[in-house]
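$ fold --in a.seq
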Amino acid sequence: MNLALTTGPVPVIAFSLGVAGLCWLCWGPKRYVTRVVPFALIAAAAGTVLLFVAAELLLSWWNASFPRYLYLYSTMGILALLLVVPRWRMSRSIPAKILTSFSAVVVLLASASAANVAYGQYPTVESLLVRPGESSGEVPIRKPLAGQDTTPSTEANWTPPSNMPSQGRVYDVRIPESGSGYAAGSSLVYLPPAYLGTPHAQNLPVLIALHGQPGAPADWFAGGQLQQVMDDFAAQHHGLAPVVVIPDLSGGTNSNWSLCLDSKQGRGATYLAEDVPRWIQANLAAGLNGPQQWATAGYSYGGTCALQLAVNFPDAFPTFIDIAGENEPTIPGGIQTLLDTYFGGDASAFAAQNALDVLKKQSFPNTAGIVVIGKDDGVYNGEGRQVYDAAKAAGMDVQLQELPGGHSWQVWKAGLSGNLDWLGQRLGILGP
């Protein structure tokens, strides 16, 4: 289950089988090799060009952060699909027909493997097959009690109980709206060993982790290996770690994600800044001592959201980590489409919530954050630098970190795991 999919022999084997499969599909009589294969290759190249135009120029499925070499793999996959039928018809034996079908499959698998290596979405077989939280049962509720001591648990005052587990657990929960009217799907909650080791509330700090688009809360545990990252941190600090809540950002059945804004497409910002914290305090008895116990972190779309929350709700989230986020919320079609869809064309309503516009008008002396960018990220590297400059000019205690890698989990995972000690100090676990 822990077999690596992005390193070691698996990507090499997938590539080798893909090349062998493509060679088989291109092999045959002279008429096939000189007429059918070149025509299919030209059609595959044209299909890849159309994919590029549609994805990056017309529909904005992705942008220049998409690794360019993956277009070669898309050409290879399209070529295999174009050749499988004529090669299959040409094959006279059943074994040859089976080999032809198998060859097309391994070419497609090689293309998928290359994309997985580029983004690191599924680093192991386990991350591909296991959904986090599906077997954990009901989340253990800790209701805050009237008159209880809400002193935060820190390394200085915490003694691990003898029955404390060595690992945290992940739970699938649905966090209802409680005033925003926002519809959300299932969220995931990571509870550290210190929380699970006692039936009493420990008033641990809270990290709201935000996923990308397209994406879901489970991505933090697949590509980001969040449970292992948090368990490793807890093991170094007597079982203490933040309670991590990963809300669903998709807006339920709404085809337009909220962009972590309050707009015609839903009050996503209010849901994240008010409804979710309210549920956490009432059901997990965490983050009870105010904003100094709360932080938000996200990657890509989630990084943009983390910044949005820190700027628009500084009293709720004075600590943030923006990992490869944009310089402003965007949707396919550009800014005018966004204004029309979300704000009825009112540019001022958007500017009132857009982080970089707000940073120009307000100061944030009590906010601290880290802006993480990938060295090879052709799009979000520059946009992250703009975010850093704007946040610094607005008085935030902000750092800029450039990590090796592109727009992938190589950067996104390290952007959180490498800053947990800083986060632990900000949230009080490790002291000042």
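$ fold --in b.seq
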Amino acid sequence: MTEITIPNQWAPRSYQLPFFRSKLKRHCLVYHRRAGKDSMVLNYTATKIFERVGSYWHLLPLQAQARKALWNGIDGQGRRIIDQVFPKEIRKRTLDNEMMIEFKNGSIWQMAGSDNYDSLVGSNPVGIVFSEYSIANPQAWDFLRPILAENGGWATFIYTARGKNHGYQLYNMAKKSKDWFCELLTVNDTKRDDGTPVITPEIIQTERDEGMSEEKIQQEYFCSFDAQIPGAIYSVQLATARDDKRIMSIPVDPMLEVHTAWDLGISDAMSIWFFQAVGSEIRLIHYYENHNQGMEHYIQYLQEFKSKHTVHYGKHLAPHDIEVRELSTGKTRKATAAKMGIAFRTVQRPRYKSEGHGAVRKIFPRLYIDDNRAEHGLNCLSSYQYEWDDKKGVFKDRPLHDWASHGADALQTLALGWVEQNTHKPNSQLGSMKASFNVFA
């Protein structure tokens, strides 16, 4: 009978030991590129699988990334990664299509993409790893955390810096909390057992010589949250808004109308910005999105928001696909909403995405964004970026379609549909402004 020791043919480096020895159930690990993050947490998970029988998940931002990077991945010694971490002798069965391993002790480990987080609920995981969390949909954690809170499970977040988005927010929270193990390691903090750097200055210089931007080097190797996300579409505008202190706590004014701007989806997210306008200001006071819900759900949410904040609605802006008839009913979502008391104004989408981006950039100096009620929408804007072309080594002229797209597209609806008329002065009592909309029938 073969004796297997877990971790299997792997030992943590000295800088990884504090994490391994931590007894806390929440971990925020901001490590530089090539610090061995995924290998470390996979072997950590392997030890936990035999401490407590249960389900364990390893989530990457996209399902395809999970298969390519780890499930089919090969380590530096030529071994298949999952075979090193989970040797076949301890497995009961391996399901390749589902990227799942069932162990002889009854535990289950599975890889998946956090992009479809709502489809993951049901198996009651007791341990979850969020890999590359700074580019993943942060709502996955909001959706899954109640499960771990109920069953006493653990969660580990591993990532490099990607600007001041949800990864930055998590790090700032975790480093102040006694309930979190929090660690940020740059290339200056990680050394091999013989004392040599894991990433030498020569390696970094080679990256520069081969065209890596200084911003990306600061992010990837020095864990800088101040560097802008390469390819981020609104990075300059958001940085200016932060400098101008326009990202802040914003009260909902019951004397002002609340308007909404939408991006429509069914299997994709349906996204809504709630905003108020006064003088030259456009105040983004709330953001909401959800998946796999009918129009009735969102209109009910609007009514609940109205009752909670004692406000009245103004205009509701939606892109042109609200005019499309649904096969199941033969009616448009615009007609369905009208029957429920919400009259949409239809906003024409731009011919080119660049026109929509230009419209958003034009209104950005007037935007004030609530950093609590609109936090996820703000994260969408921070993470919205151009698609990368691996073959050419450049960004494409179209945006990446991912979880961040929906909030950005809803703001585009606002930017294209909201046109003020400055022929009348704002009402001194209400502080509101006359407005018209760039719409078609």
